[in-house]
Amino acid sequence: AAQRVAARAADMARRSFLRVCGVVENIFFFKCAHSEIYALFGEGGGQALADEIGVPLLGRIPLEPAVAAGGDAGAPVALDGSGPAADEFRAIAARLVEDVAPPANMAGCSARMLQMVEAALGAADAGRTGAAGQASES
After folding, report:
1. Number of domains the chain is built from
2. Are residues 34 and 60 in the same domain?
3. Are residues 87 and 114 in the same domain?
4. Are residues 64 and 19 in the same domain?
5. Residue range 114-127: average pLDDT?
6. Quick one: average pLDDT of 83-98?
7. Rounded distance, CA 46 to CA 29, Å?
8. pLDDT digits (tens, 9 = 90+) for 16-74
9. CATH number of the domain that 44 lies in?
10. Both 111 and 59 in a single domain?
11. In angstroms, how far is CA 48 from the centroid of its own chain?
C-alpha cells in the first residue's frame, strides 16, 4: 500500500513539473539486541518502486529509535548521531549532491539572480542596522 501511495506522489510531483530525484526506503530493517536483522515489510519494495518510476534507489533507512527522538527534539540524527541510520542519511545526502542533483553551474542565469538577491538582502540588512543605530542615537 505504501508503495502505491509513493508512486502516486511521484506522479503528482511530475504533473506539477517537480523533479523526482529518487526513492528512499524508510524503516527498511530492524536490528535486534542479538544483532539479528529483520526486514519488517519484506525486501525489494524500494527498488521495485524506483524501477517503476524510473529513478534511483537512494538508500534504505533502518528503524532506529534515535531517528524519531532526534526528529522530535529538532536534532536530526544525521547531523550529530552515529549508527546505521545516521550513516545512511549522510550517504543519501552525499549521493544527492554528488550524483543525482549536483549544484547548478554558478555561471548561469540562476546564479546571477541568486547573487542579485543576496546583494539586495545584504543591502536591506545594512539599512535596517543603520536605521536601528540612528534611532538609538536620538
Report:
1. 2
2. yes
3. no
4. yes
5. 80
6. 88
7. 12
8. 988 899 999 988 888 888 888 888 787 888 999 999 999 999 999 998 888 888 889 98
9. 3.40.50.300
10. no
11. 21
C-alpha cell at 31: 536490528
On whether the CB atoms of residues 88 and 61 are closer than 8 A, the answer is yes
- Residue 116 belongs to domain spanning: 104-138
Which DSSP string corresponds to 59-80? Answer: EE----HHHHHHHHHT--HHHH
Helix axes 65-73, 84-95, angle to 10 degrees: 70
Angle, helices 45-53 vs 2-15, to 10°: value is 20
Residues with Cβ within 8 Å of 138's Cβ and at least 6 positions away in sequence, in order, are none
Q: Beta strands of 27-111 (E only): which ranges?
A: 30-31, 37-38, 57-60
Is the whole model's pTM more than 0.85, yes or no? no
Share of the chain above pLDDT 70, in %: 85
**Residue 131's pLDDT band (cuts 50, 70, 90):** low
Claim to verify: residue 83 and residue 108 sit in the same structural domain:
no
The C-alpha atoms of residue 2 and residue 71 are separated, in whole angstroms, by 21
Kindly state the cell numbers that stand for 76.
536530526
The confidence score (pLDDT) of residue 31 equals 81
Residues 118 and 61 in one domain: no
